[in-house]
Amino acid sequence: MIRSEKTGPILRITIDNPPVNALGAGVRAGLAQAIAAAAEDQSVGAVIVTGSGKLFSAGADISEFGKPLADPQLPDVLAAIETCPKPVIAAINGTALGGGLEIALACHYRVALASAKLGLPEVKLGILPGAGGTQRLPRLVGVEAALKMIVSGDPVSASTAAASGLVDMVVESAEGLFDAAAAFANSPARPTSARAVSGDAASADAFVAANPRLFRGLTAPFACVEAVKAAATLPLAEGLATERRLFLELVSGEQSQALRHAFFAERSAARIEDLPKDIAKRPVGRVGVIGAGTMGGGIAMNFLSAGLPVTMVETSAEALERGAALIRKNYEATAAKGRLTTAQVEAAMALLTPTLEFGALGECDLVIEAVYENMEVKKQVFGRLDAVARPGAILASNTSYLDVDAIAACTSRPQDVLGMHFFSPANVMKLVEVVRGAKTAPDVLATIMALGQKIGKVPVVAGVCYGFIGNRMLIPRQDNALSLVMEGASPEQVDKVHTDFGMPMGPFQMTDLAGVDIGWHRDPERIDDLKDALCAQGRWGQKTGAGFYDYDAARKRSSSPVVAALIEEFRKREGVTPRAICDEEIVVRTLYTMVNEGAKILEEGIAQRSSDIDVVWLYGYGWPRWTGGPMFWAEREGFAKIVAGLERYAKSMPEGFSISPLLRQQATATEEPVA
Ligand code: 3H9
Q1: What angle separates helix 639-649 from helix 630-637, to the nearest 10 degrees?
Q2: Tens digit of pLDDT for each residue in 83-103?
Q3: Catalytic annotation present for 346
Q4: Fewest CB within 10 angstroms: 31, 288, 372, 511, which?
């Protein structure tokens, strides 16, 4: 795990713990031993610490958290590095994160490869840098720059690190890294902790005030600030003690457990249990997209951004031009924010071939259909596609609800067909539900999962059912939300329960964003429910400036007296006497019902594992990450409590409601024994 090699007076210590050089117990022990030996060995003049492979180190071994950590502890190992009488130089050969970067901070000098990324992402796991990072980083870069890195958790490039004083030198090629590091071998040992901190507690407070978004709902960012303030105001030993105390508090806290669950859940979602790991994938060199609407364009952008050529097909020249122009507009907006160069925009656009020729899809290795959500239309498109696509091409539908098996059956090659359900806006949202049909070939599934990751998405496998994982769970939530309003709640009350919980928006805010008219029968005379009543009045959501709420020109939301009157009128018409609805009932009927549906999804094998459901909601709908996702949250909440709640309100639920047998089983298995 730790390799030591001596060249002349220089001892090179290499962290060699694939795949990411995590700092588990073995690595910590090896590193401590190697440093102690170097300090004692008269023939060693200087030490270089580096990582093997492409990474320096991804930091502490996250899987060790939650249990007592074996000695030596990382802070002690780093203290030994810092107090080594010989110069210790970090040769940062690649990504250095968390405890990995903290090793480098404890070294006396830092030389980084230009391609390396440096970061302290602990906050994303609900903790803070716990091996001196909060004390040493401010000593190198000052309070403000340190807070930016520690509280956002986002890594910086080697050149940014050099500009801020975090690294001493940037090297362009890997071959030159060790010579550059060795150039510091005759410099004096220079402990970071001996430096003064630039910036003070007031600059930390100013950072908090200027960045409210980074703190919303979370506890760790506040602890990060407290620790950095300690660096600015206390002697090192006390600062380190503050950091340690906060680290231990956070690591055993609920948020960190949930965030660590989310980290591992995302990675296990990529694994498909019944596929051989080394299955050969189909090459995908060109992608076809049918439909240049908002969805088709967004889907196309994912591939263009990843350097894959895209053929985009439409039926009218006008729609095609509008689609291509929208893609350009989106790229240019990103460039205007400084996140893309003009050259990158042009490079992406050069990969796009808009065409009216359906036959052009014959050149594509993967074709994604993103047309109107209607089974007959989709069946027709797949029939045509079957006639032009080359043998072996993968044919995907972006349907968000429909039966992928029925779509596949319209082709002569159902083994090549699956669903790729992107979430809107498709160029931004990271989730893709990969819908595995009854006949989808294993290599087709494996190819799309790998391709999804390549384009920066989080792909999750789902089986065929109405709405797959995410939208299927949305149905009971939205149905109950509407019933609750009929029975006496206001849209505002229901939405507030959700936003207080941490959701980016509530059920009605979401309906307004997506369009109240989705699925509407389009007959203004026929009013079956509240949504019909809104649609009949042209209140189709944000796009018409009015839905369950009113919107101004800047799409700022406000409560609508018109809607309040409509609701009242509608209740009267239905003979409903409104009653006071408590928030607890809203939680049960809109959140517990989602968990119930999730349990059914598991029962039926639609999701491979409970954590996949969490990943769908974290990445597709903005479920608050610090609760771990609906199924992780449910376990915390208590399955028995959830079942009891569902039973209590079962009579009020929309027709067809039933409690999942799996959920009942879990409730019994986890129920506290009655004393
Ligand atoms: C810390 O350092 C605390 C200290 O301040 C204080 C201590 C006292 N541990 O993501 P990938 C696994 S907290 C354990 O697919 P990539 C990962 O699960 C740590 N395992 O690769 C996966 O396993 P599997 C702060 C880890 O190339 C495999 O490695 N550091 C760790 O897409 C490959 O990972 C972080 O938060 C870990 N630290 O991305 C960094 N890291 O194959 C977390 C990865 O079985 N890591 N694994 O599914 C990352 O951000 C990405 O993994 C990284 C590579 C960018 C490094």
Answers
A1: 90
A2: 999 999 999 999 999 999 999
A3: no
A4: 372
